[in-house]
């Protein structure tokens, strides 16, 4: 990386650049314009009232002040001798230049020969003609200054810009070279310059990502894992003794995971399935196989509630076996923890279920062979590595309930194998979902009362408050109090929020599970995985504040058995887009479809949690819109790596990838 100080600017400006995450000359060049202003003579048409003209002032300027605000107006004439009245707000400093006969360029909107100008430049149009990049900048920076920095960065880096696309592929796809691409993205002369620049930059971004992922995968494949052998008859018996017949996709996923366990290559698999599609049972079969092979297994959940629930489910699945299971969470006493650590280190425990506590320093496994994490996006890459390093050659399975189409998953999680559960267990009825235009319970009180009267239980999800668990908790408490007051001694209302102690949460969840509580008022702490079969109604306050995948997750808490379930999405929002999203939830019950819609609206970073999971955020490319480029880049990356491994080709090029891998240690194993 080249020293940013070569820009020779002020300390203050360096600080502003730093807040823009720009700390090297390369960063300056990689800060692309987010849009372009195109300046050319433009007259309004039926669809657009935009106007850009060169004109001459033909009247004195009138100016009105209201406090610090101002409005100026004057008459102009263009070169067709057409006259316009021009108004511009808050630019009184221009007044001194606005003299009779001055020629200038006016940019704005025009209706009935009246222009409301957004900008006036005291220059002829010919001097402004062209495409002007507009950068996203922070306070203390100007567009002009930033453009100067880009120019300087170019002068310094000319001839030294590293390309991640081999020449052969530049020719194959008829791309321009990187230096030209970067130059054109910052200083385009035509629209085509921008197009060609983007073609290169998007391809390079994807190719580099795919090369990195594939390279890591190859490295991993070269490391030998443990080829686990076990009695398949015993595994079969276990599957037959399950309380239900596995769905086709569950069977396929199990087969894929078992093959991985048997193989001498380390497993690095991503198991994605819709909410309630039955991933837990798949993980338990896999854990059993690992146990039969003589190894310990660990199942890591994002919350204590979920860990406790997985623990209870596994205890149930394994009750007829000799498997010894333990629950390790932060809320155990020191004594209990120490006792557990002892047992784990002597292999007196076969399967440990828990939260982050599973990979604390003190936990030493006698022979850890398999790790499963639930809801991958809740864990950082570092944490996953820490747990994996607890065993020598640990197989690794990541489960996620935000499923995306297989082709996209394979490309996005390039270094992982992907198993997908699409089919739902038989007898599942889609949750009847209704968007209710209201901010209170009133319109659905009758339904709620009727439902409680037949012995059902209900979740009430409180508004999401960005970045404030405290306000969220307060709102949840108020709603719970109001509901308890309304139902007096008839029904019990429980309260669950992020600021409660883990034991308290656990107690409330157990009471709800046992139907000692009929209405559970909660923040999104119940979002993932909670499974209470008798609770088949959910009311979500301010539903417009949630992402669609999140609403689907929440809704997935009900309808987990064969009973008909209901979900009410309450919202008083008048935003057309918000209403459209909620109506979409009424119609769609397919997590794959919903996540795609959500990805389009909010982007992968928000939906899949890129930041934590180590997925890159692409600068110019868009995984959905540019998916065809991503696919091509993936195939090219495979060829390049293959050539590198078998014929020693692209050596210099792969060294570059290794260097960049080191810089970005997220990907290093
Ligand atoms: N093949 C099956 N037939 C019938 N019921 C099943 C089957 N597989 C799982 N189930 C039941 O479906 C429910 C959901 O299963 P599970 O909790 O494993 O789902 P999940 O995929 O982990 O969902 P979530 O992402 O919501 O946690 C459970 O109550 C489970 O007992």
TrEMBL record:
The lineage of its organism: Bacteria, Bacillati, Bacillota, Erysipelotrichia, Erysipelotrichales. Transmembrane segments: none annotated. It catalyses: ATP + H2O = ADP + phosphate + H(+); Couples ATP hydrolysis with the unwinding of duplex DNA by translocating in the 3'-5' direction. The keyword Hydrolase applies. InterPro entries: ATP-dep_DNA_helicase_RecG (IPR004609), DEAD/DEAH_box_helicase_dom (IPR011545), Helicase_ATP-bd (IPR014001), Helicase_C-like (IPR001650), NA-bd_OB-fold (IPR012340), P-loop_NTPase (IPR027417), RecG/Mfd (IPR047112), RecG_dom3_C (IPR045562). Keywords: ATP-binding, DNA damage, DNA recombination, DNA repair, DNA-binding, Helicase, Hydrolase, Isomerase, Nucleotide-binding. Belongs to the helicase family. RecG subfamily. Residues 260-421 form the Helicase ATP-binding domain. This is ATP-dependent DNA helicase RecG. PROSITE patterns: HELICASE_ATP_BIND_1 (PS51192), HELICASE_CTER (PS51194). Its EC number is 5.6.2.4. GO terms for biological process: DNA recombination; DNA repair.
């Amino acid at each position: 990386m080249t020293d940013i100080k070569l820009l020779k600017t002020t300390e203050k400006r360096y600080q502003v650049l730093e807040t823009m995450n720009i700390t090297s000359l390369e960063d300056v060049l990689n800060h692309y314009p987010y849009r372009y202003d195109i300046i050319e003579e433009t007259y309004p048409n039926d669809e657009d009232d935009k106007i850009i003209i060169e004109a001459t002032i033909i009247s004195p300027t009138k100016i009105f002040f209201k406090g610090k605000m101002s409005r100026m107006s004057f008459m102009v004439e263009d070169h067709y001798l057409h006259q316009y009245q021009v108004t511009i707000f808050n630019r009184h400093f221009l007044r001194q230049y606005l003299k009779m006969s001055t020629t200038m360029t006016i940019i704005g909107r025009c209706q009935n020969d009246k222009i409301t100008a957004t900008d006036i430049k005291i220059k002829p149009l010919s001097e402004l003609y062209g495409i002007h990049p507009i950068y996203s900048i922070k306070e203390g920076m100007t567009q002009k200054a930033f453009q100067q920095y880009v120019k300087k960065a170019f002068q310094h880096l000319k001839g030294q810009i590293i390309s991640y696309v081999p020449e052969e592929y530049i020719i194959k796809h008829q791309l321009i070279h990187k230096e030209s691409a970067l130059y054109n993205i910052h200083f385009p002369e035509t629209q085509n310059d921008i197009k060609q620049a983007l073609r290169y930059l998007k391809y390079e971004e994807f190719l580099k990502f795919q090369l990195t992922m594939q390279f890591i995968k190859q490295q991993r494949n070269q490391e030998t894992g443990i080829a686990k052998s076990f009695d398949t008859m015993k595994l079969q018996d276990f599957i037959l003794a399950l309380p239900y017949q596995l769905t086709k996709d569950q069977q396929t996923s199990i087969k894929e995971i078992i093959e991985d366990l048997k193989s001498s290559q380390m497993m690095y698999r991503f198991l994605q399935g819709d909410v309630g599609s039955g991933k837990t049972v798949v993980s338990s079969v896999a854990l059993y196989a690992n146990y039969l092979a003589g190894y310990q297994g660990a199942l890591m959940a994002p919350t204590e509630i979920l860990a406790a629930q997985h623990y209870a489910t596994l205890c149930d699945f394994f009750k007829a076996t000799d498997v010894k299971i333990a629950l390790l969470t932060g809320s155990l006493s020191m004594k209990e923890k120490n006792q557990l650590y002892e047992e784990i280190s002597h292999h007196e425990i076969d399967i440990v279920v828990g939260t982050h506590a599973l990979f604390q320093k003190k936990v030493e496994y006698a022979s850890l062979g398999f790790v499963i994490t639930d809801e991958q996006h809740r864990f950082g890459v570092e944490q996953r590595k820490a747990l994996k390093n607890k065993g020598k050659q640990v197989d690794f399975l990541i489960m996620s309930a935000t499923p995306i189409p297989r082709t996209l998953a394979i490309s996005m999680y390039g270094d992982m194998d992907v198993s997908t559960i699409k089919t739902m267990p038989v007898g599942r009825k889609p949750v009847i979902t209704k968007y209710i235009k209201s901010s209170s319970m009133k319109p659905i009180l009758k339904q709620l009362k009727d439902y409680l009267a037949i012995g059902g239980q209900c979740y009430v999800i409180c508004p999401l408050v960005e970045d404030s668990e405290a306000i969220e908790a307060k709102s949840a408490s108020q709603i719970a109090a109001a509901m308890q007051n309304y139902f007096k001694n008839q029904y019990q209302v429980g309260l669950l929020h992020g600021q409660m102690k883990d034991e308290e949460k656990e107690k409330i969840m157990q009471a709800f599970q046992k139907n000692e509580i009929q209405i559970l008022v909660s923040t999104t702490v119940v979002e993932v995985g909670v499974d209470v079969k008798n609770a088949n109604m959910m009311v979500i306050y301010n539903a417009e504040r949630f992402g669609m995948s999140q609403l689907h997750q929440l809704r997935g808490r009900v309808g987990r058995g064969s009973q008909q379930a209901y979900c009410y999405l309450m919202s008083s929002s008048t935003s057309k887009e918000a209403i459209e999203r909620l109506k979409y939830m009424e119609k769609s019950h397919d997590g794959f479809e919903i996540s795609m819609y959500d990805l389009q609206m909010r982007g992968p970073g928000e939906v899949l949690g890129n930041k934590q999971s180590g997925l890159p955020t692409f600068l110019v490319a868009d995984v959905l819109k540019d998916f065809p480029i991503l696919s091509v880049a993936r195939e090219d990356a495979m060829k390049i790596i293959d050539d590198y491994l078998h014929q020693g080709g692209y050596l210099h090029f792969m060294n570059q990838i290794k260097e960049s891998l080191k810089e970005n240690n997220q990907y290093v194993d």
